[in-house]
């Protein structure tokens, strides 16, 4: 299936130096993909030259004169930089010239701008940010990861619908299981909002597994894990911190003395194979869900390899018909009697 | 310093089979400790005989005829089992016969019973559960870990005071740094309660570092990390799940074929040394803070080695004068003008 994606070439810590070569590599791997490189022409052309490459029928340049800074306020980016590479990329999705866009830029600005330009799907209160995480038995999708700090039960319910739609469009699973992240202490099973969200999910006809605990994320108990953005963001960043600490410990132990260094050389192929398996770059690319267009957020520090996974995620969502699936399922549930319609359609 | 601790011998997945041998080992390692074994006499005496040991001046038995089940409702345990080993252990703290008690029993029942029997310190709304976690540079204390699902800003503030008091009593740090767990997205820096808690902490005279993110826990950015029990519980359990997944991956990689198995044998001492360093058993023993007595919760699945760390934690808190420190600091802040007194003393 022929698709076109727009790439905000200026976003991220490394800008065109990463995004342009990554786009060129992607074109080789996906012969039915077309790419629009968005950004400052001189900077993009310099990277094309450095890669001994040039524009062509499958890769074209769309100029944008401004760049959103990584620490810039979303409000300033939204109001003041109407010709930023980020905004122009999103505009290309709005006009239909591209079916998705990918940016490694500032998350807050990307969220605010894509919400302003694209608007949310009818029936969705607020967009959510979904990531994919490895598990003992495969991988799982977790949302929200920070787009929404305080959530209502209805919003958590919508995250469940959107997460399930995402998985059914990019994986071969018609009825993905959905878990609601909660705590497992005996007396105190979650706060009021989570309890209400569980009731909505239970009555929804989704494949609702029930409450899951923190341990269930990496066990892979469900295909989708729903939580509010505060919990999701902290959970994800705690995981990053723990993984870094364990990697540091392992390196220190292998560097302790001559004997451990020799053991390290012998074990190197195994350690490298382990590292490849947990390489977070393979999970790069968070999806904004609930917008009238596909927007993928790459990690700001992504390298060429990692950025390629974000492009692939965009392509998978386009080909899987994710937008249509979300719209249909949200519309279906908006008609569902147990949901107060004002909450869902406001 | 001579101390006496009460051990709920019947609690946990393994009961006296773990708690009694662990108590005996502890007495050897701490010549100024005395232990009261609480539970069903026959069961405890059988374990003493199996260990070729007997009661003596430093280890005595206090009978209790009932046992709180691991899945029992806290309300049932509290109202229906007045002679449970858990309750009798807490009573010994109340009467002053012991300065602390340790239980591997059901968390909800332990919290409800110790709160009912011991009461909270004047000025503390609700007790919190604090755990110690390893970091890249040492360790950190995190609270609350599940005792309080919905917290007010004042409660988070009290957790900061109690956490700092705990650290200053068991570590050689007079002014431990306190971080408030929050998210780092650009636009959306935390929910309202966390923002208000940050203001209270900033004006408190505590060594308040400011907001910390999930990654900061394992970096060891601060000595204390404060969060509500919902976030804390999920964070801790997600960490457990991730560590288990990584351990499984590593084992699988070393078992892949004959060559990797040989590499595994050669790397074994390094891997074992790594495992010792991250062994969660060394961090066993969560502290209930804010009660008029010291209560330590051991993990239900703790083995003899792990349970010993919970006993040591109790002893450290008694010797460090933790109760007095918490009372003094809470009283100090209750007089502090910026805190609405009704919130603090209700």
UniProtKB/TrEMBL annotation, chains A, B:
Molecular function terms, GO-annotated: phosphate:acyl-[acyl carrier protein] acyltransferase activity
SUPFAM superfamilies reported in the protein's UniProt record: Isocitrate/Isopropylmalate dehydrogenase-like
Looking up Pfam families in the UniProt record yields: FA_synthesis
Q: Which reaction does it catalyse?
A: a fatty acyl-[ACP] + phosphate = an acyl phosphate + holo-[ACP]
Which Enzyme Commission numbers does its entry carry? 2.3.1.274
Task: List keywords of the entry alphabetically.
Answer: Acyltransferase, Cytoplasm, Lipid biosynthesis, Lipid metabolism, Phospholipid biosynthesis, Phospholipid metabolism, Transferase
Biochemical pathway: Lipid metabolism; phospholipid metabolism
Q: Name one GO biological process term.
A: fatty acid biosynthetic process
Output the Gene Ontology cellular-component terms.
cytoplasm
Localization, UniProt = Cytoplasm
Q: What is its main location?
A: cytoplasm
Q: What does this protein do?
A: Catalyzes the reversible formation of acyl-phosphate (acyl-PO(4)) from acyl-[acyl-carrier-protein] (acyl-ACP). This enzyme utilizes acyl-ACP as fatty acyl donor, but not acyl-CoA.
Task: Output the NCBIfam families linked to this UniProt entry.
Answer: plsX (TIGR00182)
Q: How does it assemble?
A: Homodimer. Probably interacts with PlsY.
Q: Which family does it belong to?
A: Belongs to the PlsX family.
* Official protein name in the record: Phosphate acyltransferase
The gene designation is plsX
